[in-house]
Automatic annotation (TrEMBL):
GO aspect biological process, one term: asparagine biosynthetic process
Signal peptide: none
Record's protein name: asparagine synthase (glutamine-hydrolyzing)
UniProt family annotation: Belongs to the asparagine synthetase family.
Keyword Kinase: no
Residues at which L-glutamine binds: 100
Enzyme class: ligase
Active site positions, chain numbering: 2
Amino acid sequence: MCGIFGIVTDSESVPDRARLDASMQSLVHRGPNSQKIHAGPGAGFAHTRLSFVDVDARSDQPFWDVSARYALIFNGEIYNYRQLRAQLESEGVVFRTTSDTEVLLQMLLHRDPDTAIRALEGMFAFALFDSADRSLLMARDRFGMKPLFIQQVGEAFLFGSEVKAFAPWTAPSVDRFMVASYLQGFRGPTSGFTFLDDVTSVPPGQIVVKRPGSAPQFHAFARLEDFLTPAAIDEYAALSSTQIVDHMEQLLSDSVEAHLLADVPVGAFCSGGVDSSLLMGIAARRHNNLAIFHADVQGPFSELGAAAALSKHLKLDLKAVSVTEREFIDLLPRAIRHFEQPLADRPNCVPMMQVACLARDSGVKGLLSGEGSDECFLGYPWLGRKALTDGYYALGGKLRSGVRAVPGVGDLLWPVPEGNVDLVRSLFNRREVVDDAERVAAAVAALGPAIKSEGHRWTLDYLHHHLRILLHRNDTMGMAGSIESRFPFLDHAVVRAAVNMPTEYKLRRDWRALDKSHPFTRDKWVVREVAKRYMPPELSQRPKFGFWTNVFQRTRIDPRYFHDSSIASLLGLTNTQMDATLASADHSFQQRLLHLDLWGRACVDVEPEDASVARLREFVSIKAL
């Protein structure tokens, strides 16, 4: 895990080292172990390293080949690098290090790009620079675990792990279309456009080639819909329940083993939920000194009891950090500065950032995370009650159609909603979610009418924009504490199984399942069945919480907060107009305004954190429970 930055120009001029250093310093939290700069004709690179494999300085970056023609600037981990190295060595390739960085470089030099990148099992964002023609080959992993941003600034082309690294070279300009989409409920961009004009987030699963004097060229090396195949659907449909559980246990065991691979300590997030608990249970059978960490959200939603019960069962020492309600507010400027987007519907960013700092201070560099399980195995409560709600909305639809069919008065009694709000929001965010959904629907439809399970589509839908938001949260909040998050549930074999298995192994009717959010339905059934083999039922069957808090719902914002504010300036509103807007807005919209303003202060105006915190303490309070 690292921070990367690069600038390549059309001329032979050497990029300014002072600005390269400034870009590097903005990424030090991503790589506190070593930092290096390269400045040469037409190209400059900065790299900050959080070293996991071959921690020797010989594997520092930019990493050049022996001819000094090619340089690799790489962020991520390649979990199957030993197998790939063995293949290359059998072909006569000689290695100078034991790092996955050098394996990636040699793969790119000895295979065509698509073949090389498709062979990678892991998370990555990288750029390969050819000094002979000053071209760049860039790519981002298929799930979007690692970020990669690019921007053209005059004759200069920039790339980096975070947009703040671009600040020494260009001033940020707000994309007002994206702001409008966000204010209408969009959760935030994760692929393509961003909140800033002309800054692009490289889409997951894509390769980008940039040559001097030409616009970057994009093409996909993989799509998540590729996991869905008729052969795999038939394969999993033929298995019994016991065989499915055995198979999933083996896949997860193999994945956990691969994700623990490192030359430094790797621990685990211990949220108290079944996903992280299962990963810890599997890991604990292989490593009796696994370090586990918990964020104890103070109040009625604390999961410390469940985390402590699990640690006792597994005979592991639990380290916990307390997160108070006030910290959810006071730490928002810091969290948003790292997240580089507003956070309105993601309050758990703060506890994730806090537990990452705890792990760092305890000498751990990486943590296993249960992220991806809910998406793969349909763990969201509303999916468990979807049949009921779909029936309710279908009944309402029939009633609405019946009323509108009454001649002459139907449209008056039940008028058609105007405004096309959903369509407008989709246009403002450049159809990111809609296009994903249409590709998934087309992939499922291509299976033919004989395969009717909606579960395939639901899983693929959640593995797109929804998961990308969560992975961005994990990356940025972990890196705020110099911690790498690792995701065993997103191992390719695990995802392939999840996408193709029958829905009944994810959502299963069970009269004993009394979860009030989806009564008589057991979510993530196969995951919970595997978990039963590692922990008692009271832990394997726990409902989902996920560092939950309702502090955002209980905040009260004094209208004076927005006087002469970043958001008022962006929207072109006077203080009186902002007062009226806040008075008319519901609580959810007030939160979106607050978080948008905090983003503007942190990421556009670059206001000092203590000034933002002081303003919050003066004008934002929390209503008591």
